[in-house]
């Protein structure tokens, strides 16, 4: 019995060592793969200057894709495969044979990414990650590859959140896909303060601020909203600016009118007059008069005095298949 127990013990020990080392190996592999993936996609085209990239799909490829920007890489495939999944391919692919030297020149998509998509068309998995999702979405939109568009949308639903949305908004917004735009709006409205704190002075980021400020309901107070905006713009002020209040007011322009100052308390308005302030002296006085005695003066014409609805918004994602 003792011998058996010892045997069993050593068995378990070696079993654990083995599985642990396998686990570490798998982890390392994954890391290397990730590195390889990102090294391929960061900026410059892979294997620049080499003419060796030549990939063939299917038995009798009859279309040749040529990538002059990737060292003249070539991709040979079968028209029928493309025609089946995309109307655009059906219309655009040359009717003559690849043997005649007819080729499709591709300059707006990298060989690497196009090759991944063709692999997918030939039944392989498509791996979508941060560095390639925009280019894959571009191909999907350009060639009407709906399955691919759907895959990228699903990726975006899991990848984009309040912390990273500001960095990606501009690029996703360009594709003009309604459910993605609504998804991003949902993030803006459900986590306005987190989103605002990530903004810069760029035009697309002002669009984000506008989306937030135009929302009839927000899960934060108007004063918190104000404070987040001032903090963010204060952080982004250039060093040589003399009057920071005026500078921020000019940067925000008409967006200021979307802050509902008349719905704040007197104490909050007084806090809003602390430097740097988005309010002029006249505006602060007008708001105090309104809040204290409901006296309607000039500034009240331009600012809403209707409190926002307090919503506990959750971001809705269509459940991906
Ligand atoms: C006004 O600002 C101070 C900090 O400067 C803060 O402690 C206080 O809570 C603010 N008052 C209101 C009413 O938000």
TrEMBL record:
Cross-referenced InterPro entries: BTB/POZ_dom (IPR000210), SKP1/BTB/POZ_sf (IPR011333)
SUPFAM superfamilies documented for this protein: POZ domain
Domain BTB: 61-130
One of the record's GO cellular component terms: cytosol
Annotated transmembrane regions: 12-29
GO biological process: neurogenesis
Keywords from the UniProt entry: Membrane, Transmembrane, Transmembrane helix
Domain of life the protein comes from: Eukaryota
Keyword set includes Chaperone: no
Nucleus keyword on record: no
PANTHER family reported for this sequence: AXUNDEAD, ISOFORM F, BTB/POZ DOMAIN-CONTAINING
Record-given protein name: BTB domain-containing protein
Originating species: Lutzomyia longipalpis (Sand fly)
Lineage start: Eukaryota, Metazoa, Ecdysozoa, Arthropoda, Hexapoda
């Amino acid at each position: 019995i003792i011998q058996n127990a010892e045997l069993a013990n050593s068995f378990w020990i070696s079993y654990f060592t083995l599985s642990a080392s396998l686990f570490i190996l798998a982890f390392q592999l994954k890391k290397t793969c990730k590195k390889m993936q990102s090294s391929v996609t960061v900026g410059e085209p892979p294997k620049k200057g080499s003419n060796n990239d030549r990939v063939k799909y299917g038995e009798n490829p009859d279309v040749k894709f040529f990538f002059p920007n990737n060292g003249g890489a070539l991709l040979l495939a079968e028209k029928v495969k493309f025609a089946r999944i995309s109307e655009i391919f059906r219309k655009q692919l040359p009717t003559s044979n690849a043997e005649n030297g007819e080729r499709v020149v591709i300059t707006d998509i990298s060989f690497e990414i196009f090759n991944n998509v063709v692999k997918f068309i030939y039944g392989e998995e498509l791996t979508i990650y941060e560095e390639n999702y925009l280019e894959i979405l571009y191909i999907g939109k350009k060639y009407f590859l709906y399955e691919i568009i759907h895959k990228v949308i699903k990726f975006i639903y899991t990848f984009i959140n309040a912390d990273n949305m500001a960095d990606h908004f501009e690029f996703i917004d360009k594709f003009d896909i309604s459910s993605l735009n609504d998804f991003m709006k949902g993030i803006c409205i459900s986590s306005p303060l987190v989103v605002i704190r990530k903004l810069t002075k760029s035009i697309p980021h002002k669009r984000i601020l506008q989306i937030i400020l135009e929302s009839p309901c927000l899960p934060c107070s108007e004063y918190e909203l104000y404070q987040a905006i001032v903090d963010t713009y204060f952080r982004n002020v250039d060093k040589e600016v003399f009057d920071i209040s005026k500078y921020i007011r000019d940067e925000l322009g008409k967006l200021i009118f979307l802050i509902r100052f008349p719905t704040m308390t007197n104490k909050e308005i007084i806090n809003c007059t602390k430097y740097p302030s988005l309010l002029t002296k006249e505006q602060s006085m007008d708001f105090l008069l309104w809040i204290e005695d409901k006296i309607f003066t000039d500034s009240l014409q331009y600012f809403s005095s209707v409190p926002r609805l307090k919503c506990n918004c959750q971001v809705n994602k269509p459940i991906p298949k």
